[in-house]
Amino acid sequence: MDALEGSPVLEEVLGDALPQLELFHVKLATEGEPRGIIGPRDVDIIWERHILNSAAIVPFIREAVEKEQFKTIADVGSGGGFPGIVAAACLPNCEFTLIEPMERRTEWLAECSEEMGLNNVTIFRGRSDEMIEQIKYRRHHPFAAVTCRAVAPMTKLAGWTLPLLKIRGKLVALKGKSAPNEIEKASKQIRQYHGYGAKVSEAEVGPGLQSTFVVTVERR
Fold this sequence. Notes:
This protein is α/β, with parallel strands linked by helices and 220 residues long. 41% of the residues lie in helices and 23% in strands. β1, α5 and β2 form a beta-alpha-beta unit. The protein has ten helices and seven strands.
């Protein structure tokens, strides 16, 4: 039994997206571990560790795209749908492209999108550098924002994400406590890929729950 099942915190944080995310929770609880999407120790804490943690990024995405005509977001290394599926449920007026190279995970993402009725999700099976190539040769438009969670340290992430962005687009990355240290180590790579204004913000996960951290970087 998930520790937060039935908690008023869920509706408070997730609002109108709660019914869709309850479907996602059921799918994760029943199929997530056997299909290698979540670990065995996560089964009783899916709401906090995966869904609410992913939703903490939503206000930052909303701010990043609020003035954009085309609210397009690429989620790099979507894996089990964190934060891409969760953010897409919370932001139905935004268009999400979930970038994931592993076939079994893209199958999972497609099933989740369909079962949750997410009409604002496209799945791209491949690595971010393949999408970067498409943007470079104008086969795909650059994105207003790029998201990711627990994909790689900022030294690698800068090159995987910043080239996906339009000018003045924003990287919004869920990170742990080491975020300030990561930004410092990656300052050269951030500049190399035209990033600037790297910032770490504390992001609330929910009342009484441990907060997380979000790194934002703009593209010149």
